[in-house]
């Protein structure tokens, strides 16, 4: 029995051994895995050059001068000689007001002036009389026994008092005259003239309206608004990242919707040199000559803003930059390996884009980037190109 079991075991081992040998001879055992094949890519060299391009920015035309006409005194509107759209010249009569209380005030002040002048004349007459008496007494006192010394002293004191009265009366006359001049000045406010050459853009009140510097609803709005439309300000808010190098007197082109297909030019005149904290823009003003009056203040414009940098920056094709959820990057090829390099992008110019990061001019980056290529992956360069210089 034991001999049969032993024989069976030997037979099974022999069969398994033959099967294993047969498998080895037929080559059915799996071979070890081969390393990843290199990805074929096209590369382009990073180029260093100075940025010089044009960007389109929205802006708005504003009048060079603008003023709201308010009254300085309370009164009734008697005449308004202009209306919306009227062209006016400096010093031209615009509005005439009436203030009946000023007539009464003038009469009172004129009466006070006449009274003060009368008092001055009386004081001067008394001074002349008393001074004459005093001089006679001084001459008479030279003769012993004619006049008492005390009488001469009293007469001198009277003259001194008269002089004080004359001085006070003189000051009173000057004060009343100053009050009269003040009334005259107030009366001059009843006539409102144009402060500069321009055009009337708004008219709010008409004859008969009661107005004043701060009297009710009527006093809260101007009578007229005047703007200088022969010279305009083009206010361009330059984004903080696009400020670049600006030069005063540099000509800038712009267009307006009212004249499609036409381009206007104006020089850079005023640069604020300060970025607004809310909008993160820097206001820059251009002086626009508008002698023919074609351009209207308040119009929106599209400005072709010259954007330049005074130092060279790095450029790559726009297709060489991509982003994922975490960062923006390019793929640099170095020693046959791919390397992700995080960058910050700048301006785009003719299919190229500025990049800022750990890069150098002349280095090779993948021309058409893909996030399927990871850092450390082997790559094979098909051909190399250079960006336009």
Order of helices and strands: HEEEEEEHHEEEHEEEEEEEEEEEE
Number of strands: 21
Number of separate structural domains: 4
Q: What can be said about the biggest beta sheet?
A: 6 strands, antiparallel, barrel
Helix content: 25-40%
What gross morphology would you assign?
elongated
CATH class of the largest domain: Mainly Beta
- The fraction of residues in strands falls at 35-45%
Q: In what order do the strands lie side by side in the largest sheet?
A: 2-11-14-13-12-15
How would you name the CATH homologous superfamily of the largest domain? Efflux pump adaptor protein, beta barrel domain
The average pLDDT is: 85
Straight-line distance between termini: 96 Å
* Radius of gyration, in angstroms, nearest whole number: 49 Å
CATH architecture of the largest domain: Beta Barrel
Can you walk me through this structure?
The structure is a single chain. The model is unreliable at 1-34 and 215-219 (pLDDT under 50). The protein folds into four domains: 41-50 and 312-386, conserved putative lor/sdh protein from methanococcus maripaludis s2 fold (Beta Barrel), CATH 2.40.420; 55-63 and 228-310, Efflux pump adaptor protein, beta barrel domain (Elongation Factor Tu (Ef-tu), domain 3, Beta Barrel); 70-96 and 193-226, OB fold (Dihydrolipoamide Acetyltransferase, E2P) (Beta Barrel), CATH 2.40.50; 100-188. Strands 2-11-14-13-12-15 form a six-stranded antiparallel beta barrel. Strand 12 (251-255) and strand 13 form a beta hairpin. It has helices at residues 2-26, 100-140, 149-188, 216-219; strands spanning 39-45, 47-63, 66-69, 75-80, 87-88, 93-98, 191-193, 198-203, 210-211, 224-227, 231-239, 251-255, 264-271, 281-289, 300-317, 322-323, 328-334, 337-349, 352-357, 364-366, 379-386. Helices cover 28% and strands 37% of the residues. The chain is built from four helices and 21 strands. It is of the alpha+beta class. The protein starts with a helix and ends with a strand.
